[in-house]
Structure formats: C-alpha cells, structure tokens
Amino acid sequence: MKAAGQLVPRSGVYEIYWYFAAERHRILQRRLAGDPPPWTSDPILREFKFTNTFRAADRVSQYMIRQVCYHGEPCTSMDQLFQITAFRTFSRPATWEAVRAYLGRYPVLEDLASSAFTAALEHARALNGGLYTAAFILCATNAYGQPAKHLNHVELWRHMFLQDRLGGKLAAAGSLREVYDLLRAYPLMGDFMSYQTAIDIGYSDLARFGEDGFTVAGPGALRGIRKVFESTGSYTPADVVAWMADHQEDEFVRLGLDFGGLWGRPLQLIDCQGLFCETDKYCREAVPGLASARTRIKARFTPSPEPLRLFFPPKWGINEQAAATQIPAAPSRPAGTRQATLF
C-alpha cells in the first residue's frame, strides 16, 4: 500500500463514509432484533433506500446465497456455476422463481442446451413484465445476433458453459482475480458484471477464495471516491478501496464509531467499494453543494414488517452468531460533520 500522505480526505465528507457504514449496519442490527421502525434518527437514512453496509446482507445477495449457492437441489458443480452466472445477470428473484416453477427445478446445463431454459425465460418475462433488475443497466448489444437482450445472454451462456466449458476453468481458479479475468473475456460481461459474478461464485463451496484480494470500482464508487477525497494522488481507485479496508479499525475507533463488523467479520473490499457508491448517494442530500453527475436519490425507503432471517456462506462460520445477534451501542456523531444530517 502506498503512503497515506498521498490521499487528501475531504473534511466532513470523509467522515460520512465511516458514519454511514456504522449507522447503516446499526439499522440492520436493530431490524434483526425485532425493534419497530424507525430504526435510525438519521432523516436521510429514514427517507431513502440504501444498500446494506455488507453486500452479503442485501436482499438479492441473500437470495443468491440461499437459493442459488446453497439451494440443495441435485445438480452438478458445472450446473451451479451456470446458475450463479445467470442469476446474477438478472439479479431478480422473481425471474428465478418463475423459471424454477416452469421447469419444476432450478435450470441445469441440459436446459440451456435445449430450448427449455429459453422457454422458461419467456414464461418469466410474460408473467413478471420483465426479467432484469432495475438497479443497474447492463450492456444490451446484440453481440450474438439475437433480437432481444435475454436471448443474447442465453447465447452467451451457451458460449461459456457448453462451447468453452468455462465451468471447469472457474472451478479450478485459485483467486478472485482469476475468476474475474475468465469472465471478463466474454462479450456482454463488462467490468461490473464480471466482478459481481466473481464475488457470487466466491460465496459458494465451489470456490477456494474469498471476497478479498481484488476489487473493481464501479461508476458509483468512482463518484463516491471523488467526493470523499479531494485528491487521491497516484492511488488507483482499487488502491483507495484497499486503503479503506486496511484502515477501517483505526478509523472507526478514531471517530468514536461502534462497529463490530458482521459478527466479527470486517469490511471486505467489495463492501468498501459499495460504501463509496452509497456515500455518493447519501451526499446528494447531506452535502448537496458537492458537484456530482447525480443530484438526487431516486429510491424511497419503505419499511417491511417481515422479520429478517439472514444466512451466510457456512464456510464463514458466522451463522450461529447471526442467529443469536446482540445489539451494540449506537454510533456517535463524528467530528467535522454537519449538524443538519443528525450525526
């Protein structure tokens, strides 16, 4: 890691990054304990929707872990790698549920080779009015000459898993970076989808690596980095994310923020990357004068009365602790931040 002096934090915004990480996680802990809403006194966090501090605790990632990585239905490891890649592309549980209902099971490579998987997707699209999440925009080029985005993705997966037998290469990969590079070599994947899919594969028992060791900063994270730091010197965006991960314990202590991690599991690179994206969003309300390509937060928060039941990759060894979660003290207001944001 480079010398810290090359990073110039933006006073009052740098602190928001760490405050947001602690308070957003505190909201999750309160919900897990069954506390009634509101779960925070922060008006921005009460009004708008933000992802969890830890990616693995988010709704879609939770579905990925439970229903794709560890669903327990009979299938081969190659089938499961296809399932993980396909689900992440859509990132919409309703699509996966409709496909499973149509096929009577989760899709396997045999369905991909035949017309069964395509027919299941057509059924899901008609049933739900679409296949893809609205949370992010995917490359929509007709790279495989098909008239619809999902049909090009079907051809992509046939290219990957049937023609190139990518599943075997992914299963043999020894690092997150190696999986990313294998995925990134294909049309329609791109930096964002390749990284996100590599992280999901890392959740499964098929992977011999974790979430750390490599990161890719997405567009939202890049905006957040520009807000949090006045200058990053010679640091790359990946260097900045790694610096935050490396210094998290010291910064939480320095700012007086109570943060115990995910039952002792610290922020990983993927989490620190995501926090830059969420800090960018938060600052649109907290520091509106800070220039950005995005000026407002679109999604409003609607509390759900349903209790949360989190499940993480068993290899992490935290599921028993998660089931018996305890509530730590609330974070205090960091120095140098604006009173208007109720820190």
What features would you describe in this structure?
The chain has a two-stranded antiparallel ribbon. With 343 residues, it is mainly α. It has helices at residues 14-32, 43-47, 59-69, 77-90, 93-103, 109-113, 116-128, 149-163, 166-172, 176-184, 190-203, 219-228, 237-254, 269-286, 319-323, and strands spanning 8-9, 229-231. The chain starts with 7 loop residues before the first strand and ends in a 20-residue tail after the last helix. It folds into 2 domains: 4-54 and 217-341, no CATH class; 71-203. It is globular and about 55 Å long.
In short:
51% of the residues lie in helices and 1% in strands. With 343 residues, it is mainly α. The radius of gyration is 21 Å and the shape is globular.
Count of DSSP strands: 2
Termini separation comes to: 31 Å
Strand content: under 5%
Order of helices and strands: EHHHHHHHHHHHHEHHH
State the strand order across the main sheet. Answer: 1-2
What is the helix tally? 15
**Residues in helices, as a percent range:** 40-55%
Give the overall silhouette: globular
Number of domains: 2
Characterize the biggest β-sheet: 2 strands, antiparallel
Any idea what the radius of gyration is? 21 Å
The stretches of 5 or more residues where confidence is low (pLDDT under 50) are: 326-330, 333-343
Task: Give the integer mean of the pLDDT values.
Answer: 91
Please state the structural category.
mainly alpha
